[in-house]
Amino acid sequence: MHAYAQKVAVLEAVVQRMVLESAGATAEYIEEQAKATSFKLRLTEYAAPGTADGKRVVGLPAHRDTSFLAVLTQNDIDGVEVECGRGEGGIWARPALSPGSFLVFAGDTFKVLTNGRVFNPQHRVVMSGDKTRYSSILFSSPKDDVIVHAIEETVDSEHPAVYRPF
Predict the structure, then answer these.
(1) Where are the beta strands (DSSP E) in 13-160?
(2) Fewest C-beta in 10 Å: which of 8, 128, 152, 164?
(3) Which pairing describes strands 69-74 and 123-127: parallel, antiparallel, or unpaired?
(4) C-alpha dihedral, 25 to 87 to 83 to 91, nearest 10°
């Protein structure tokens, strides 16, 4: 599991770097951000609801992650749904994940880091059928002693800081 988590952390670092570069962050900032990041791997099991009639059961209620990023992979049983649009009560879509693919969610902390330029979607797990769903999620978060604030390059007279440092 440790070797797997290390490989997924490399993917997370690439995604984080790409997004931060697009927001205008310097190479030095991105390097410091990487040093200030900790990881947690969560393995999940959602028991099959046994609904042969196609009825869907909520396995995990709608929520937003608090992390920087969450990198999710699953077995061949879909279940993740993402709310489309930026308002509550939107349309829920189920991304079609091919085997071996990853789904990356931005969390609340990453939204703050980018001064709201990266949206953190609400998502949930909805199950049906008679097969158990397994997934792994690698969460990246700031280390305990890190103060999170918007990247300087995302704040200017047209885009004032939206969030207070925490």
Answers:
(1) 37-46, 57-63, 69-74, 80-84, 91-93, 103-106, 123-127, 133-142
(2) 164
(3) unpaired
(4) -140
Distances (CA, A) of 36 to 54, 117, 146, 152: 45, 21, 7, 17
Q: Which two tokens stand for residue 61?
A: 């209620």
- CA-CA distance, 85 to 93, in Å (whole number)? 10
Summarize pLDDT for 87-97 with one digit per residue, the tens: 666 789 998 88
What was the pLDDT predicted at 7?
96
Helices (H) and strands (E) in the chain — how many of each? Answer: 3, 8
Residue 111 corresponds to which amino acid? K
List, for residues 134-154, the tens digit of each pLDDT value.
Answer: 999 999 999 999 999 999 999
pTM for the model: 0.89
Q: What is the pLDDT of residues 60-82, one digit of tens each?
A: 888 999 999 999 998 888 889 99
